[in-house]
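Notes from the 1:1 (GR / supervisor)

We went over the backlog. Supervisor wanted to see one worked example end to end before approving the batch request, so GR pasted a single chain during the call. The sequence is below; no edits were made to it. Supervisor asked that the structure be written out right there so they could see what the output format looks like.
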Amino acid sequence: MNITTRVTKLDNPESKLKALATIVLNGNFAVGGIKVIETEKGMYVAMPNHLGKDKQYYDDCYPVTAEMRKAINKAVMTAYENNATAVIKSEPEAIATKVKVIPNNNPDSNLKGFAQITMDDCFVVSGVKVFDGENGMFLQMPQYKNSAGEYKNVANPVTKDFHNELSNKIIQQKMNKIKMNKERQLQINKKNRKQKGKSKQQITIKQRKMNKQQQLQQGKFQIKNM
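Structure output shown during the call:
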């Protein structure tokens, strides 16, 4: 995967945070909020993350192979050492994508699901949200809140074609899950109705037997008292 890198150095010698970086994958997808941090062992490239409810930090976007992590580290650090120059450039190229959608089961919420995108089997974007708006379903990329209180995208498609491709793929999978859930619910309802009918039939048969037994007992009692 080709990587374009832009690095902005920070002028604060007392801070361990030395720079912020943005990478663009295959000219189609941008990931910002990457940090260059100085540690005792040298410079470290940290992917964008957020603080979870359990007070643990979780990456929003991250490489899932050693090769991809090495390529990102090299691209970012080369740009950093070359004074923020974009040293690896690329024209838009196709990215193979896989999506996973988890539905939100709250029927009263406009938030309909959460999605995860895997690109070329080597890079993952999590925290994508699927909303149902006035004009239909749409995606919201993972976001962060800046110092001004504004929400900004951590990552986003940079071409219209790739944006449409991701939107269509994720929303289509969401619609398929809705259809599957409806079909599953119909099957459950049908099964429940069938079981209810059987139970009702069993009760009716049992009641008939009880009534018959009562009638026989009453008949025997009448004969005995004649």
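Supervisor's comment: The two ends are 102 Å apart (CA to CA).
Batch request approved.
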